[in-house]
Amino acid sequence: MLYDTTPIVKLSVGTPPQLIGLAVDLQMGLIAFLVPNTTDCVPQSNATSAQYNCATDDFCVIMGYFCPAASSTMKSIQPSKSDPEGPVNADVVTVGSQRVDGVHMWLNDISPGEYSRMGISPGSPFLYLMVDQGFINSPSFSLWSYGTPNNQGQLLFGGVNKAMYKGTLQAFPLSGSNNNVNAPIAAIVVESGNSSTAGPTTTRHNLADSTTAVLSTIDIFTFLPNKTVQQIYADLDIAPTFIPSFNASMGIVDCARTQSENRTVSLVIGNVTISVPWSELFIPFEDDTCEFTIVPYMPDLTYGPGSELQIGAAVLQYMYLAVDYDNIYHYSVWGTDPDHHNHGVLANVNFSFKSASRNIRT
C-alpha cells in the first residue's frame, strides 16, 4: 500500500513521450510501468480514464499508464545471462530534458496492487545507464521531499542541492547482504509539549550500536526493537490495543489526539537528529481512530515488512538523502527550503496518495 509519504516521480517514456508517474523505491532496482491488458491501447492523452479499468484503480488514476503500442521506440529484448528472468522490453525514458535510451523495463497489467515504480537500489541498471550515456558522473542521486511548495519534492540524479540542507552531510557506509541504503539509529528521543500541570518533557532511549535500519520510501511504517517501541508508547500515552484481525497489538489512539497534542519523535542518526511531529506518524485505522506507524519489528519473519529494522517513509520525508553507490556511502541530513541545485539531472516528485485505512500487513 502506498501513502502520501511515497515520492512519485514524473517521467516520460516512449516516442512520442507519454508522461507517467512512478513510485521511487530505494529497495528495488527495476523500472516498471502500468500498461493496459490489451495490445491495441491508445495513449492516455487520447483515452478516457474509464478505459482499461484505470478509473477504478487508485494507482492508475494517480500515475497514469503507458501504451507500448503507441511508442515507435519500444523494443523487445533478450534477458541478460546474469538475469534470465529479467525484463524483455526496452524504450526511451526522458528525465527532465535528458533522453535516456535503451532503458530496460517491466510492463505490469493494470490490476489491484500493481503500480509503476522507479527502482534506485544498489545495482540499479537505470543509474548506470545514465552514467554510460554521459548524463551523470556516478550512479548517484539525492532525494528531498518535505516542506517544498505544492507538496512536491525533488529527485536529483548525479548531484546534490546545497540549498536543501543545513550544515554538512553525515556519511554512513552501505551495509547488509544487499548493500541497501540504511542508517545506524543511535537513539529515539520523545518530546511532549507543555501541559496544564507540567512543562515540556523529553526522554531519550539509546539503541544498541548494531541497530542499523534500512530506509523505505514505499512502506510508511518504521520497525524498531519491541522494547524501544513499548518505551515510546509509554512516553506518548499510547496503550497497545490487540486487534484480532491482525493477531497483533497495535498503537491505536483517537485521531483527535494527533492534532491536539504537541509531541515530537526524533531519530538520532550519527550527528544528525531527524525530528518528526507525532501528527505525521499516524494513519487512519477505523472509525475515528488512528494507528501509530512506529511498530515492533518481527525477527522471526524471514522476509517482507517487519522482518528487519526499518525507517519508514513517514520519517524519511523529513530527511535530505544523498546516495553515491560508487563511493559506497549514503548521506542524510535535515534540510531547508530548496532554491537551486548543482549539476545533475533533475526530476520533480509529487506526494499524491492520500492515507487510507490500513487493511494489509504483508
Domain module tally: 2
Oligomeric state: single chain
CATH superfamily of the largest domain: Acid Proteases
Low-confidence stretches: 332-362
Residue fraction in strands: 35-45%
How many helices does DSSP assign?
A: 5
Helix content: under 10%
Shape assignment: globular
Radius of gyration, whole Å: 21 Å
Q: Biggest β-sheet, characterized?
A: 6 strands, mixed, barrel
Say what the CATH topology of the largest domain is.
Answer: Cathepsin D, subunit A, domain 1
Class of the largest domain in CATH? Mainly Beta
User: Class by helix and strand content?
Assistant: mainly beta
Looking at the overall shape, the CATH architecture of the largest domain is: Beta Barrel
Number of strands: 26
For the largest beta sheet, what order do the strands appear in spatially? 1-2-7-3-6-5
- For the termini, the CA-CA separation is 10 Å
Average pLDDT over all residues: 82
GO molecular function: aspartic-type endopeptidase activity
Family: Belongs to the peptidase A1 family.
Pfam families: Asp (PF00026)
Organism: Trichoderma guizhouense
